[in-house]
């Protein structure tokens, strides 16, 4: 099988149920998810240390789920019985967030992306995830989509933020606080 088909040379691509322009909102949404998946693969490649084995396992599962998100968005006609992204996946992300948050120090100010290479790359994942979510919201305004994809992306960006902080903790690197801000978060015991 050849990788190139020449079918897209005129600016069209196939989706499940037809063909659309390569700059179609649907293609933008799942294309941004694909971009995110590439950054997730990159951060996994940095996690050679055993301290990150649990994160690597989670992130590999997330890579599969990002493919599921893209597949669900590729349907031109809503087909709920074929959806791959389910509410349980969002709930599991929330459990992971809570688990990793226990390792992190209290947060008082906004955090600048940075610290270790792993943390920095996870922040890139977070911001690309937010863009994928925005593209998905735009798509949902013009056609019906699996709403669990939007929820999943929203929670996933929170997950990336939390584990970026956890990665710094595990490497003994403090978060970089945005110092031009007043304290905006309250400690949980206040």
From TrEMBL:
It holds the Pfam family Cob_adeno_trans. SUPFAM superfamilies: Cobalamin adenosyltransferase-like (SSF89028). Its EC number is 2.5.1.17. It catalyses: 2 cob(II)alamin + reduced [electron-transfer flavoprotein] + 2 ATP = 2 adenosylcob(III)alamin + 2 triphosphate + oxidized [electron-transfer flavoprotein] + 3 H(+); 2 cob(II)yrinate a,c diamide + reduced [electron-transfer flavoprotein] + 2 ATP = 2 adenosylcob(III)yrinate a,c-diamide + 2 triphosphate + oxidized [electron-transfer flavoprotein] + 3 H(+). Pathway: Cofactor biosynthesis; adenosylcobalamin biosynthesis; adenosylcobalamin from cob(II)yrinate a,c-diamide: step 2/7. Residues 3-167 form the Cobalamin adenosyltransferase-like domain. InterPro entries: CblAdoTrfase-like, CblAdoTrfase-like_sf, PduO-typ. GO terms for molecular function: corrinoid adenosyltransferase activity. Gene3D superfamilies: Cobalamin adenosyltransferase-like (1.20.1200.10). It is an enzyme of class 2 (transferase). Keywords: ATP-binding, Cobalamin biosynthesis, Nucleotide-binding, Transferase. It comes from the Bacteria. Belongs to the Cob(I)alamin adenosyltransferase family. PANTHER family: CORRINOID ADENOSYLTRANSFERASE, CORRINOID ADENOSYLTRANSFERASE MMAB. This is Corrinoid adenosyltransferase.
